[in-house]
Automatic annotation (TrEMBL):
Domain Peptidase M1 membrane alanine aminopeptidase, first and last residues per copy: 310-456
Segment forming the signal sequence: 1-26
Entries under Pfam families matching the protein: Peptidase_M1, Peptidase_M1_N
Top-level enzyme category: hydrolase
Source species: Saccharopolyspora erythraea
Entry-linked SUPFAM superfamilies: Leukotriene A4 hydrolase N-terminal domain, Metalloproteases ('zincins'), catalytic domain
Record-given protein name: Aminopeptidase N
InterPro entries, per the entry: Aminopeptidase_N-like_N, Aminopeptidase_N-like_N_sf, Peptidase_M1, Peptidase_M1_aminopeptidases, Peptidase_M1_dom, Peptidase_M4/M1_CTD_sf
Known catalytic reactions: Release of an N-terminal amino acid, Xaa-|-Yaa- from a peptide, amide or arylamide. Xaa is preferably Ala, but may be most amino acids including Pro (slow action). When a terminal hydrophobic residue is followed by a prolyl residue, the two may be released as an intact Xaa-Pro dipeptide
Superkingdom to which the source organism belongs: Bacteria
Length: 500
């Protein structure tokens, strides 16, 4: 069966070129590459080693935004490694490799380390980096993602944030487990991923310890410091359900709690669709300043207060919890594949609406299809290859959701459910590409879908009505009155898009 042969040949050629350009082949002596070969963000990530664990220990002063840290990285060289890179933006004081001082050079986000001796392929290696700085003042690569607030900070961002508080291999291809310990003045709260494993105080300082035992992409590790009301109680399937609400939410507090407290209900609903929830804890954080977006930090999504300015907003909770499967458990192999994250998370909002009786997925599809004219620039962005500048464009979200519903119309409800559950099970804790998803969709549905995906993901312009595209005639005659869920969904995507 013909499957996008041209695209796959080009992708293979690109991979071959990247392989040949790597400074050292596996098994030979040489430095690791200063990037993983992501066309959209060439400098992100590094080659030559694989991280299994990060131990991040930082001391943070909210008064002047000063951060001091020691991060220990447990890794395995994938070649005989004479030098390697870490992605990092703050000032580095020292680097130890396997307990010995190593030479290093620092340029922007690239920290190049030369160990005293070659690290053998497959061996156990530890990198210990000591550092400090004022993250909010540091700009690298033209960006400053650190968010300083009146009472602390938010280390939250996508696709980059980790380099502003710990060094690492900053790309979703290299996931690891995390221990995060943050020391702050007494009376200040700290949130991070996973489960709280300890809290202790000494000499006016409190250390908060958090642990996540499932593979985590570096940008999904987060830290929120400030004044929060923190609660831990049983969540779905008996897991810890950790919530934190800023003390300064004011009029937004009620709506934020009315939404985020329903997280276990959403987890159970989505587990029924997608399969087992992939992590060890659940929760959510509501901030009161500094950010206008939401982000799917692993186990603990964080929400701007702006989502709740009109009242409770379940769509944003559904969106971020869906990301625990699509984006967190299954991450993008390169950032070109962002549709696999945002398309599914956005479509999950439609499925929730359908279950809640506030608009069926077909009604929502018809609304967005009919209300967006063919000459609207929205249709010119290709969700399957939006370009680095449009990674978080509205089309990736809304046209992305429309793609999945149109696929449902083409293959049927049962087949789409089977495709989705199989994808989630087979790619658990890994990365994926759109091409792999297309191949699976064809295998599980028994249908040839090249024309369909070409129209929806890779071709500028509004897909035409027809059986091949999954667009029914009803989509052109949708009611001028949108389903009730639309206002909430639009508010979600308006704020999510702002994050860029």
């Amino acid at each position: 069966m013909f499957r996008r042969q041209g695209l796959r040949v080009a992708a293979a050629a690109c991979c071959a070129a990247a392989f040949l350009a790597t400074p050292a082949l596996a098994g030979s002596d040489g430095p690791g590459a200063p990037g993983v070969g992501d066309d959209y963000f060439p400098g992100y990530g590094n080659g030559g080693y694989d991280v299994s664990h990060y131990d991040v220990q930082v001391r943070y002063r909210p008064a002047d935004d000063y951060l001091q840290g020691t991060t220990t990285i447990v890794a395995k060289p994938t070649q005989n490694l004479t030098a390697f890179n870490l992605d990092f933006a703050l000032k580095v004081k020292s680097v130890l490799v396997n307990g010995q001082r190593a030479q290093f050079e620092h340029d922007g986000l690239e920290l190049t380390v030369t160990p005293p001796r070659t690290l053998p392929q497959g061996s156990l290696a530890t990198f210990v980096v000591e550092y400090d700085g004022v993250p909010s003042t540091v700009e690298a690569g033209g960006i400053k993602p650190w968010i300083r607030t009146a009472d602390g900070a938010l280390a939250i961002g996508q696709p980059e944030i980790s380099s502003w508080w710990f060094p690492g291999n900053d790309h979703p291809r290299d996931k690891a487990t995390f221990d995060i310990a943050v020391t702050v003045p007494d009376g200040t709260e700290v949130l991070a991923n996973g489960v709280n494993t300890g809290k202790s105080s000494l000499a006016g300082q409190t250390t908060w310890q958090w642990r996540t035992t499932k593979p985590t992409a570096t940008y999904l590790a987060f830290m929120a410091v400030g004044q929060y009301e923190i609660s831990t109680k049983p969540g779905a399937f008996g897991q810890p359900f950790v919530t934190a609400y800023s003390d300064k939410l004011g009029e937004y507090e009620g709506a934020a709690k009315a939404s985020i407290e329903r997280t276990p209900e959403v987890v159970e609903f989505l587990s029924g669709l997608f399969g087992e929830y992939p992590f060890e804890a659940q929760g959510g954080v509501a901030t009161s300043e500094g950010m206008s977006f939401a982000l799917e930090n692993q186990t603990r999504p964080t929400y701007s207060h702006l989502f709740f300015r009109r009242g409770a907003n379940m769509s944003v909770v559904v969106h971020e919890i869906a990301h625990q499967w699509f984006g967190d458990s299954i991450s993008v192999d390169t950032w070109r594949n962002i549709w696999l994250n945002e398309g599914f998370a956005s479509y999950a909002e439609w499925l929730w609406s359908e279950a809640q009786g506030t608009g069926t997925a077909q009604q929502l599809f018809d609304h967005y299809y009919s209300s967006t004219p063919a000459d609207d620039p929205f249709w010119q962005v290709k969700p399957g290859d939006p370009g680095a500048a449009n990674v978080f464009h509205g089309a990736v979200y809304d046209r992305g959701a429309m793609t999945l519903h149109a696929l449902r119309n083409v293959v049927g409800d049962a087949a789409l459910l089977d495709i989705t559950r199989t994808w989630v099970a087979e790619k658990r804790y890994q990365t994926g590409t759109i091409e792999e998803f297309i191949e699976l969709a064809e295998q599980r549905s028994g249908k040839q879908l090249d024309e369909f995906f070409e129209a929806w993901l890779f071709t500028p312009g509004k897909p035409a009505v027809g059986a091949a595209t999954g667009v029914p005639a009803s989509a052109t005659t949708a009611s001028l009155v949108p389903p009730p869920a639309v206002a909430e969904i639009d508010a979600v995507h308006e704020r999510v898009h702002d994050h860029d």
